[in-house]
Amino acid sequence: MRVLVIEDNPADAALVRVLLSDPPGAYETSVAQRVSEAETKLLGDRFDVALLDMSLPDAEGVDALHRVREAAPSMPIVILSGQDDEALATKAVAAGAQDYLLKGHVSEVTLRRALGYAIERQEMHERLTASVDELEDQRASVIRLNQLKNDLITVLAHDFKGPLTTILGFAELIEEGALLGDDARDAAGTIRRNVFRLTTLANDTLALSRIEHGELEIAEETVDIVTLLDEIVQRTDEPERFNLQTTATGASIPGDRERLRQVFENLLRNALKYSLDEAPVSVAVRDGDDGFVRVDITDRGIGIPPEELPGLFRRFARASNAKKARIPGTGLGLFVVKTLVEKHGGKLTVHSEVDRGSTFSVALPRSGAIERAPHVAVVVGDATLGPFIAYELRSNGYRVREYKDLADLQERYAAEPSDAIIIDRDRNPGDASALRTSLDGAAPRFIAIGGAKNADGWDASLPKTFLAADLLAALAFAR
Ligand code: ADP
């Protein structure tokens, strides 16, 4: 333990050294005779604890304490004073000193104990401060999520209503026999288009909710982009407006077919929606020069004002000209598109000119860059701790599965293997090697919460009360 003794009386400093000389090598002391000297030492060196005399040539009383604290805010300080002054002791502790010892009244044992406790208390204080910061962060993120949910409900309620009203209106007309022949066929077409719109909206909403909860999964399939684009074109309202071309040597890429369908469905629908009737839309697939396949979707539509481009991929962002033209929309699609493309290891970009048109480009890697978040199995079975762990892990990009108890995990493990398993050992006693055997020799990393410290076979172990940062560190270590 490195101890900085700030003491101008050489005899007192020597006494401290003697008191801390046993066992040899356990304490390393360094003496500063003034606060300024202590400040210099603290600039270049780290000490575990300081012993401070509050009456020094260049600083007196609480002032000396303040200066040392400022020089090393996280170092615990124990006062060693010649003054038996209750008021001063109280003031010193209030100003952040960990303890107040009286010269002439300290023994080897009391001094060592005081230093040990001071370090422990300081650590505890820091953990508490970190917990408070963490709680505040969590509170802010709950408020943000709640706001987001409220925004979403408002936007969605509004956007679901439009198509529903149309569908209901036409369905009633057909039912009453008011529409016949071509009129009835047109009405059916309108109903179908509005149902598609609602489907896209529902899919985007679900995707948004998964993204927010960190639960978006990307399957690893082989997807032929050109075939997929062709299917999507055929399902749009006006397939004849699209001109699909490819110069790519082959356009099969690793990815999630349904998610990529969602990406291009959104972009192709937008291209139609934001351009004038009958204006053609080109969809060009080509090889990028960097191992990416690029799909450029170019319309001759209303375009996007340049100053609004940077924020366009945020959730609920809508350009002013689209709103002014009263083109219906939620501003949900592009956010979902961008996230899905990035989850595939790709990039979404846009070039646009107002009244001339836009090109949205999706670049997708030809070989395996799909973001693979590790799977973590949480076997905690506690109504508060379990959700807390799951929330923290998900918001840090892990995929999480929760299990009631070990039996539940063991039963489902063959179908749901994990990269790491977190187990509450107070609720699920047993040793790690037995568990490993019961999981049929699987090799995930095992993290224990509670139970005896450093028990054999666990890759990391956390105390029952821990900070989110401890949990993430244990997992990072286990990765
Ligand atoms: P929505 O179309 O439902 O509003 P999106 O997230 O798909 O939601 O698009 C966000 C905004 O970006 C749109 O509201 C519109 O202002 C603009 N936008 C998207 N695609 C185009 C496009 N092809 N041409 C012009 N503006 C577009």
Structural topology:
Layout: E1 2-6, H1 10-19, E2 28-32, H2 35-44, E3 49-52, E4 55-56, E5 59-60, H3 62-71, E6 77-81, H4 86-94, E7 99-102, H5 108-175, H6 181-212, E8 221-224, H7 225-235, E9 242-246, E10 252-255, H8 257-273, E11 281-287, E12 292-298, H9 320-324, H10 333-343, E13 347-353, E14 357-365, E15 375-379, H11 385-395, E16 399-403, H12 406-412, E17 420-424, H13 432-438, E18 445-449, E19 460-462, H14 468-478
Parallel strand pairs: 1-2, 1-3, 3-6, 6-7, 9-11, 15-16, 15-17, 17-18, 18-19
Antiparallel strand pairs: 4-5, 8-10, 11-12, 12-14, 13-14
Helix pairs in contact: 2-3, 5-6, 6-10, 7-8, 8-10
This protein binds adenosine-5'-diphosphate.
In short, what is this structure?
With 479 residues, the protein is α/β, with parallel strands linked by helices. Helices cover 46% and strands 19% of the residues.
Describe the structure.
α2 (35-44) packs parallel to α3 (62-71) and α5 (108-175) runs antiparallel to α6 (181-212). β17 (420-424), α13 and β18 form a beta-alpha-beta unit. The chain is built from 14 helices and 19 strands. The protein has helices spanning 10-19, 35-44, 62-71, 86-94, 108-175, 181-212, 225-235, 257-273, 320-324, 333-343, 385-395, 406-412, 432-438, 468-478, and strands at 2-6, 28-32, 49-52, 55-56, 59-60, 77-81, 99-102, 221-224, 242-246, 252-255, 281-287, 292-298, 347-353, 357-365, 375-379, 399-403, 420-424, 445-449, 460-462. It is elongated and about 110 Å long. With 479 residues, it is α/β, with parallel strands linked by helices. The chain has 4 domains: 2-106, 3-Layer(aba) Sandwich (Rossmann fold), CATH 3.40.50.2300; 140-212, Helix Hairpins (Orthogonal Bundle), CATH 1.10.287; 221-365, Heat Shock Protein 90 (2-Layer Sandwich); 375-478, Response regulator (Rossmann fold). The protein has a 5-stranded parallel beta sheet, with helices on both faces. The structure holds adenosine-5'-diphosphate. Adenosine-5'-diphosphate is lined by residues 266, 270-271, 274, 299, 301-304, 312, 317-319, 322, 329-334, 358.
